[in-house]
Design a protein that fits this description.
This protein has 337 residues and is of the alpha/beta class. It has 13 helices and 11 strands. Bound molecules: (2S)-2-hydroxybutanedioic acid.
């Protein structure tokens, strides 16, 4: 009996102690839910894991980053709404996905052939224009932290896409960008906005005939298994803006925010150093699989594609603004000189 009383008293004391230092105390880590739509084995997927590793290390475990890849938490449009509501703290949507928020300016990155290479891109995003674009997000309760590359897009379909005329009447899945819509309209195709997570099935069942994406996305989504041809066009670019819920970010203790900013800077350098290789490796794997025929364009065919897409610039002026297009082209030009 005495033993029992002693045991009960010990449990009570232990529970009391736990209540004082329990999970609700200052010891609980700050959780960052980082949601994204691509596979882990992609430039963005790997950089998200790198950020997690560095953020947890630099904050000494005071921050825990939970990465949710493959649209496991949210699809394209939903994830932006979730960030604004604070249900998720961090995302890295592509430049093409900010339109539904009322911000069309990032679609300037979607203009066909606007960037000759990734080096030029970096000069633009790290320059005054890149910073100005990030600031636009503030009014939407979002803080822009960094730009992460993926790479250049290729065209895929179940028919050979060589000349502009081949695109006539072909149904293409696009991201939610008016510039991308104008691009496919200029080619006489039928663009259809669709979430990334739905593309494979839509291609497989014939809901759409084709799509445009980077080699790493095509390979990790197995799109090459349901597309007979991929044309190496490198006509457009996919890159990301890493964003956080502004209130969450502003409310962080200053030292933690600095440590996270350091982790983000290093994860960004890591991403931008490996994205090209990820895409090269994915292309090699697609070739090895033999499932899709890869079409290379001659310089004349490439020139015809560029010419066919020229009207997109005029069309985009009313969507993203001519001054912005001029500024982008000027910065891109000075970067290549
Ligand atoms: C797409 O929707 O095609 C891409 O933006 C997916 C991604 O995040 O790379």
């Amino acid at each position: 009996m005495r033993k029992l009383i002693w045991a009960a008293a010990s449990i009570a004391a232990l529970t009391g102690a736990l209540a004082l230092t329990g999970p609700a105390s200052a010891q609980s880590p700050i959780i960052i839910k980082f949601s994204h739509v691509v596979a882990t084995d992609t430039p963005k997927g790997k950089a998200a894991e790198k950020f997690k590793e560095l953020a947890e290390k630099y904050t000494g475990g005071k921050v825990k980053v939970e990465v949710y890849p493959n649209s496991t938490l949210y699809k394209d449009k939903e994830e932006l709404e979730a960030l604004q509501l604070g249900s998720v703290q961090m995302l890295a949507p592509s430049n093409s996905k900010f339109g539904p928020l009322g911000i069309r300016e990032f679609e300037v990155f979607d203009l066909p052939y606007i960037l000759p290479d990734l080096k030029t891109l970096r000069k633009v995003t790290e320059g005054p224009l890149g910073i100005k674009l990030l600031k636009l997000l503030d009014t939407k309760g979002i803080t822009g932290l960094a730009y992460w590359d993926n790479g250049f897009k290729q065209m895929s379909a179940n028919k050979k896409l060589v000349a502009p005329a081949d695109y006539q009447g072909v149904k293409f899945r696009i991201q939610s960008s008016r510039v991308l819509q104008a691009q496919f309209k200029a080619l006489g195709s039928l663009p259809q906005v669709m979430a990334f997570s739905e593309v494979y099935q839509a291609l497989q069942t014939g809901v759409v005939d084709g799509q445009e994406n980077t080699w790493s996305n095509i390979y990790t989504q197995k799109m090459h298994e349901v597309q007979k041809y991929i044309t190496e066009t490198n006509h457009g670019y996919i890159g990301y803006v890493v964003i956080v819920n502004k209130k969450f970010w502003d409310d962080l203790p200053g030292d933690i925010r600095d440590q996270l900013a350091k982790a983000m800077k290093e994860a960004t350098d890591f991403n931008n150093a490996q994205s090209q290789k990820e895409n090269d490796d994915a292309l090699a794997e697609i070739k090895k699989s033999g499932k899709s025929e890869i079409i290379k364009l001659t310089p004349e065919q490439d020139a015809a594609m560029r010419k066919a897409m020229e009207p997109v610039y005029k069309d985009a002026a009313s969507r993203v603004g001519q001054p912005l297009i001029d500024e982008f082209q000027k910065e891109a030009k000075s970067a290549t000189n």
